[in-house]
């Protein structure tokens, strides 16, 4: 647990409140009991002083608990008696706590009587120890109960936060399903259940809207296939020339866009499954460059066997290479370093929005250049084959895209050479 989590903040708050209450009650009880004990001792000392005064006035011997100017008499009480006033004060006698009472006597002396305060001091010490022990037990109990109660609350909050993170990562089927929500009546039994119900409702609504958009995208792409096929046939009937070539190029662009839309809809629906097998990464890189039809340099620093879907990996690399040639500046280089592949161009680099939040569909930057669906498809296909795609800009200029493939646990044996 983090020391700054809500659970420990709640526990510390409860402990602080308990300490404050226990301290105030302890001080109050200590003051009251101490006052009563001192008052009782003062009364006893004054009673003894009155008896000693009568004996002193009558010329009789003083009681054993009284004397004139005793050395142990507290200084402030002695000064008070010398000024002609009567008073009491706590002090010691024979190293024991004692309550003294004194009045002025003849010859500038002080007549003093004492009362043993040992029992009263012991009572106060025992009371202070009992208060301290009770406060410690109360604090420990409060902290334990508070930790248990707050752990149940924070556990629900952590679960709700985990579900929110899963939804933001694309798992739209994630739900909190807090049992404290009265689903039948639509009411929530507490505030956390209200937040959980609101999150579930938001996820359901978002999931419905996304599914509607995915169905719309797939339907549009399917519906475009028929007129595009007709356009392609009609373009074949046109006379040769530059206008016919331009029409054919536009039809091919529309056809590619339609296929990209279909691929996007399939990736969004999360129904695609990767067909994993072992392949040499260098062979896949060279095939992707040849399929792109671009003058891309391939640098093999280190080959490796990878377990991946060859078709999808070639699609990712092809989209990255075509994007580098379309929006960057040559030379474009594909570097293979084991399971790590990098595509580098020498153009203006990726825009800030792409570095911060990733590719956006059909987004057009201020320079008038969009990134279409190529990078979006590359990101989706990379996620499907459990690869990590990272977009950055090289220190000396140009876009730098890094694709990291998972390392297989078992490395296949190379096929035997022919004739062996």
Automatic annotation (TrEMBL):
Catalytic activity: ATP + protein L-histidine = ADP + protein N-phospho-L-histidine
EC number in record: 2.7.13.3
InterPro entries, per database record: HAMP_dom (IPR003660), HATPase_C_sf (IPR036890), HATPase_dom (IPR003594), His_kinase_dom (IPR005467), HisK_dim/P_dom (IPR003661), HisK_dim/P_sf (IPR036097), TCS_sensor_his_kinase (IPR050428)
Compositional bias per record (Pro residues), positions renumbered to this chain: 409-420
Chain residue ranges for the region called Disordered: 399-420
Pfam families: HAMP, HATPase_c, HisKA
Keywords annotated in UniProt: Kinase, Membrane, Phosphoprotein, Transferase, Transmembrane, Transmembrane helix, Two-component regulatory system
A single MF term (Gene Ontology): kinase activity
Transmembrane segments: none
Lineage top rank: taxon: Bacteria
Family annotation (SUPFAM superfamilies): ATPase domain of HSP90 chaperone/DNA topoisomerase II/histidine kinase, Homodimeric domain of signal transducing histidine kinase
Domain named HAMP: residues: 151-211
PROSITE patterns, per the entry: HAMP, HIS_KIN
Sequence ranges assigned to domain Histidine kinase in this UniProt record: 219-409
Localization of this protein: Cell membrane
The protein's name: histidine kinase
Source organism of the structure: Streptomyces halobius
Phylogenetic placement of the source organism: Bacteria, Bacillati, Actinomycetota, Actinomycetes, Kitasatosporales
């Amino acid at each position: 647990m983090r020391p700054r989590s809500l659970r420990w903040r709640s526990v510390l708050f409860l402990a602080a409140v308990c300490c404050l209450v226990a301290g105030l009650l302890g001080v109050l009880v200590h003051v009251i009991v101490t006052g009563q004990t001192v008052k009782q001792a003062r009364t006893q000392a004054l009673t003894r002083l009155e008896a000693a005064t009568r004996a002193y006035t009558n010329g009789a011997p003083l009681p054993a608990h009284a004397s004139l100017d005793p050395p142990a008499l507290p200084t402030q009480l002695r000064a008070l008696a010398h000024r002609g006033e009567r008073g009491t004060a706590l002090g010691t006698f024979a190293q024991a706590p004692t309550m003294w009472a004194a009045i002025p006597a003849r010859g500038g002396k002080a007549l003093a009587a004492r009362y043993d305060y040992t029992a009263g001091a012991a009572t106060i010490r025992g009371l202070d120890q009992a208060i301290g022990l009770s406060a410690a037990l109360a604090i420990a109990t409060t902290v334990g109960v508070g930790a248990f109660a707050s752990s149940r609350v924070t556990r629900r909050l952590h679960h709700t936060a985990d579900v929110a993170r899963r939804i933001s990562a694309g798992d739209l089927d994630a739900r909190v399903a807090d049992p404290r929500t009265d689903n039948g009546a639509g009411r929530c039994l507490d505030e956390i259940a209200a937040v959980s119900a609101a999150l579930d409702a938001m996820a359901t609504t978002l999931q419905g809207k996304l599914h509607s958009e995915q169905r719309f995208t797939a339907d549009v792409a399917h519906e475009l296939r028929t007129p595009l096929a007709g356009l392609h046939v009609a373009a074949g009937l046109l006379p040769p020339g530059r206008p016919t070539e331009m029409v054919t190029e536009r039809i091919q662009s529309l056809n590619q866009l339609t296929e990209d839309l279909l691929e996007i809809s399939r990736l969004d629906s999360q129904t695609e499954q990767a067909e994993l097998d072992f392949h040499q990464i260098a062979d896949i890189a060279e095939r992707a460059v040849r399929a792109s039809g671009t003058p891309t340099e391939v640098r093999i620093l280190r080959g490796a066997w990878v377990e991946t879907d060859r078709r999808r990996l070639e699609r990712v690399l092809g989209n990255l290479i075509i994007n580098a040639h379309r929006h960057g500046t040559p030379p474009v280089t594909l570097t293979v370093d084991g399971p790590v592949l990098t595509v580098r161009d020498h153009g203006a680099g990726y825009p800030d929005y792409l570095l911060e939040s990733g590719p956006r569909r059909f987004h057009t930057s201020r320079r008038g250049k969009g990134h279409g669906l190529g990078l979006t498809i590359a990101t989706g296909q990379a996620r499907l084959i459990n690869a990590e795609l990272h977009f950055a800009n090289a220190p000396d200029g140009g876009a730098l895209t890094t694709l990291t493939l998972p390392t297989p646990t078992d490395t296949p044996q190379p096929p035997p050479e022919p004739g062996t």
